[in-house]
Amino acid sequence: MTKLKYDVVVVGARVGGSTSALFASKSDVDVLMLEKRQEIGSPVQCAEGVTYNTFETLKIKPNEKYIRSKIKGANIHAPDGRCINYEGGVAEGLVLDRKVFDKELASEAAKSGSDIMVKTAVKDLIIKDHKVCGVIAKHLGETIEVKADVVIAADGIESNMARMAGLKTIQSPQQICSCAQYEMVGVDVDPNYLEFYFGENVAPKGYVWIFPKGDGVANVGVGIRSPGKTPLYYLDKFVSKLDATPVELNIGGVPVSGPIEKTYTDGLLVVGDAAGHVDPITGGGIHPTITCARIAGEVAAESVKNEDCSSNYLKNYEKLWKKEVGKGLSQSAKYRKMADKLSDKDMNSLAEFIENQDIESISKIAALKFVGKNPNLMKLLTEIL
Ligand SMILES: Cc1cc2nc3c(=O)[nH]c(=O)nc-3n(C[C@H](O)[C@H](O)[C@H](O)COP(=O)(O)OP(=O)(O)OC[C@H]3O[C@@H](n4cnc5c(N)ncnc54)[C@H](O)[C@@H]3O)c2cc1C
């Protein structure tokens, strides 16, 4: 059996793993990142939309080689067909080619000094005296043992690492948004706007999205959280109205109940989808994942240098990520619970109200008057306040 020793081992090599590896190796510790697939970033399980602040967090300038479309705003379609246009703000950003972006991010980590092994699936954690101190992995049929001071679990929604280390992870089906997405050719949409469609018949407890990638290519997907019909059923129903052809199908789940209770233990940190670092309303995980993964990489490196990789030291990671994104994620989880209870009628009247306002400057009085006239919305609002 091959035996290796690193300061930090990162499990999973997409946005969470590569960001952790990049910032840990920038802090001058030895890093090994392990990825079970043969190609980093493939298959894509993402609509590929990001906000610009993702790149500020990464301290990287976005590169044309992975930018597919520059987004100025979004069109939000209510169940009755009413369309609200939203310009700039949180809707402004980029649609990426994640197959290129994810590999590029892993390359940045490698350029900073991280070692990477693909086609290497981590099967087990090495735990001694209740402390995680490495992993056992399979690489092309060979078993390898990698000792490490800190393991960073960036193994996504299918995460086993956190559970193996004794942490409670998100598992119930109601906490997962089930998604299906086609990349399609011949989609007739504005290349600079995201499209969102809501309604019980379109996507129960979720939405349909069209994220343009230029030249008539777009990611057309649906995410739902309702038992019964599959997301593919709703997707096929939606795309039957488009004169477009699929060239790729992706199926995946998004954890939308907010972060797990505890994201560290002795010798281990959890980041990204594995930790529930996903906005519960939008299902967007790239930015919160990258923010938390940068902190994980930095704290892991500091703990190695301070020769203290105990849970007591590593708890700094959770303190720091909560300071950056904790409030936003918990607020969003509250709003999602409210959104879950909105009927098509509520959404239509909300759209009617917003349609006649300047979104950026809706007055409190106008909003209160509107809610007052809609008893269901008033009830939901009092529940979350
Ligand atoms: C359909 C869909 C659309 C989405 N659209 C958007 C969007 O437009 N914008 C946005 O911000 N977010 C979006 N998200 C969410 C976003 O994709 C994720 O939040 C983000 O990719 C999480 O990154 P991660 O690195 O934590 O996990 P992942 O991307 O899941 O990566 C985990 C990696 O770990 C590897 N791995 C797993 N187990 C092991 C093991 N035992 N050993 C070695 N390797 C292992 C996997 O192969 C994988 O490469 C979407 C998600 C879905 C499903």
What does this structure look like?
Helix 6 (286-305) packs antiparallel against helix 7 (311-340). This protein has three domains: 2-48 and 97-170 and 259-325, FAD/NAD(P)-binding domain (3-Layer(bba) Sandwich); 174-255, D-Amino Acid Oxidase, Chain A, domain 2, CATH 3.30.9.10; 341-384, no CATH class. The chain has ten helices and 18 strands. Strand 5 (73-77) and strand 6 form a beta hairpin. It has 385 residues and is an alpha/beta fold. The model has no long low-confidence stretch (mean pLDDT 93). The strands form three sheets. Strands 1, 2, 8, 9, 10, 11, 17 and 18 form an eight-stranded mixed β-sheet that branches. Strands 6-5-13-14-15-12-16 form a seven-stranded mixed β-sheet. It has a three-stranded antiparallel β-sheet with strand order 3-7-4. Helices cover 33% and strands 29% of the residues. It is globular, with a radius of gyration of 22 Å. Flavin-adenine dinucleotide (FAD) binds at residues 11-17, 34-37, 45-50, 121-122, 154-158, 179, 181, 221, 252, 254, 272-274, 278, 283-287, 289.
